[in-house]
Amino acid sequence: MNKDQVKGTAEKLKGKVNEAVGKATDDPAQELKGDVQQEVGQTQKDVGDLKEAAKDAKKD
Predict the structure, then answer these.
(1) SS3 39
(2) In degrees to the nearest 10, what's the CA dihedral of 33, 34, 40, 44?
(3) Distance between CA atoms of 15 and 3, rounded to whole angstroms?
(4) What is the CA radius of gyration of the chain?
(5) Counting CB atoms within 10 angstroms of each CB, which of 19, 37, 43, 59 has the fewest?
(6) DSSP-based helix, strand, coil % in the chain, nearest 5
(7) pLDDT of residue 60
(8) How far apart are CA 35 and CA 10, in angstroms?
(9) Are 3 and 47 in contact, with CB atoms under 8 Å apart?
(10) Integer Cα distance of 49 and 26 in angstroms
(11) Which helix (H) or strand (E) holds 18?
(12) What's the pLDDT at 30?
């Protein structure tokens, strides 16, 4: 697991929290912020996954 995977997962988690708070408080802006954070986190995690796959491919 590399830093991009960890940071991406953390960002997704923060996004889920913001989305839930936005829904609970009926705040569409915070809900949208949470959605965006989740997408950014997923993208960062995907980059980390690609880096890991490339690293593993080099070992073979």
Answers:
(1) helix
(2) 150
(3) 18
(4) 15
(5) 59
(6) 90, 0, 10
(7) 75
(8) 14
(9) no
(10) 35
(11) helix 3-24
(12) 98
Of residues 47, 40, 48, 49, the one with CA closest to residue 18: 40
> What tokens appear for 32 in the block?
């949208």
pLDDT along the chain (60 residues), means of 10: 96 98 98 98 98 91
Supply 23's token pair.
Answer: 């829904």
What values do phi and psi take at 36, rounded to 5?
-65, -45
- Look up tokens 């923060």; give the residue: 14
The angle that helices 3-24 and 28-59 make with each other, rounded to 10 degrees, is 160
Cα 54 vs. chain centroid, distance in angstroms?
20
